[in-house]
TrEMBL record:
It comes from the Bacteria. Keywords: Membrane, Transmembrane, Transmembrane helix. This is Ionic transporter y4hA. It comes from Nonomuraea turkmeniaca. InterPro entries: Alkaline_pH_Ca-Antiporter, NaCa_Exmemb. GO terms for cellular component: plasma membrane. Pfam families: Na_Ca_ex. Residues 202-224 are annotated as: Disordered.
């Protein structure tokens, strides 16, 4: 009975959130209703994480991480495009701000929290450097092609691509992302699987014979019907998350303007809301000592955020008014370069300590602080 009640909320919350989305769409909300919508948004996030973990348990890794990353990013892209179309020329930098925020949140925030969770428990976090390194290299390439080069190109005025350059960046981004998915799921799937406990060694590691058994690892796989139901509810929850984030965005924009904060903060808040499911799922995986899954989620989300957003924006630019500003400023380029260097030093050994988690979290804190006070 308790188990059925626990399952009931994972069904009711996405449905209630979707109902709230339908009732609140296109309307100005008073403060009391805005708070209720925010609570349903949080509930939909938790439900999305639950259903993503059910699907992941059914299909196994790395497909489970891929499902959540792609599902969230596809709807995130729809949110960005819809906001840019409805916002006109004033939202020309929204895609850049949101995508860069997603990269910093995933590569520093989620990675830092995941490593912190594991290293506080076991002192050393072990993962597969081959697969994680390939993911990091793809993220760094996509970020440089899409967010750094527009600042230095000369065919268009300002930090923007010309139509031909934008088309090339879109095709290159989509091709790299597709190639990575094939590598992750077909040709080198073993590079992205959690490191077996028997293979871990080092200070603070517990031997396989003395290790605590994780009941979730040995729980029976969900049936195909259960997984399909969770897939449907996951999509409902994610649509509700992104839709309610858009409903709340005028309130967020008003609060940002009233506080005298830069407009880029709106993109940061949107990215934080949309990436909540991945963040919670990654921390849950780290608590189970499956840091590889956490890294798959983090870097996979960063990659999908760029690899799917840029092609979508390239197509949407046909209807968008005003310039599409993709190039980063000097401060953000320094943060991106430092993130790539630090992430490389974290990934190459295949083992991380509390020190690495602290460095990533400080970088994430620096990003948030400089977004508020540029």
């Amino acid at each position: 009975m308790i188990r059925n009640a626990a399952r009931l909320w994972t069904v009711l919350l996405p449905a209630l959130a979707l109902l709230a989305l339908g009732l609140s769409w296109g309307r100005e909300l008073p403060l009391a209703l805005a708070i209720i919508v925010a609570l349903l948004l949080a509930g939909a996030v938790l439900a999305a994480v639950h259903h993503a973990e059910v699907i992941a348990h059914r299909v196994g890794e790395p497909f489970g991480s891929l499902v959540l990353a792609v599902a969230v990013t596809v709807i995130e892209v729809a949110l960005i495009v819809s906001l840019m179309i409805s916002g006109g020329a004033q939202t020309g930098a929204l895609a850049r701000d949101t995508v860069f925020a997603a990269v910093m949140i995933t590569c520093n925030g989620i990675v830092g929290l995941s490593l912190l969770t594991v290293t506080l428990k076991r002192r050393i976090a072990a993962f597969n450097a081959e697969g994680t390194g390939k993911a990091l290299a793809t993220v760094a390439t996509l970020a440089t092609l899409s967010l750094v080069l527009p600042t230095f190109t000369t065919s268009a005025q300002g930090p923007a691509f010309s139509p031909a350059q934008l088309g090339f960046a879109a095709v290159a981004s989509l091709a790299l992302y597709a190639l990575f998915v094939v590598t992750q799921t077909v040709r080198h799937r073993d590079y992205f699987l959690p490191v077996p406990r028997e293979a871990r060694s080092g200070e603070g590691q517990v031997s396989a014979t003395n290790d605590t058994v994780d009941p979730e690892e040995h729980a029976p796989r969900p049936s195909g019907r259960t997984a399909l139901t969770s897939l449907g509810l996951l999509l409902v929850a994610l649509v509700s998350v992104v839709g309610l984030a858009k409903v709340e965005s005028p309130i967020i924009e008003g609060a940002v303007s009233s506080a005298g904060l830069p407009q880029a903060v709106v993109g940061v808040v949107i990215a934080l809301l949309v990436l909540l499911p991945e963040t919670i799922a990654a921390i849950n995986a780290a608590r189970r000592d499956q840091v590889q899954i956490s890294l798959n989620l983090a870097l996979g989300s960063a990659m999908a955020s760029i690899g799917l957003t840029i092609p979508a924006i390239a197509v949407a630019s046909i209807w968008l008014e005003g310039p599409l500003l993709l190039g980063l400023g000097g401060t953000h380029m320094v943060l991106l370069a430092l993130t790539v260097v630090v992430s490389t030093l974290t990934v190459v050994p295949g083992r991380a300590t509390l020190m690495q988690s602290g460095v990533h979290l400080v970088l994430f804190a620096a990003f948030l602080f400089l977004a508020i006070s540029p």
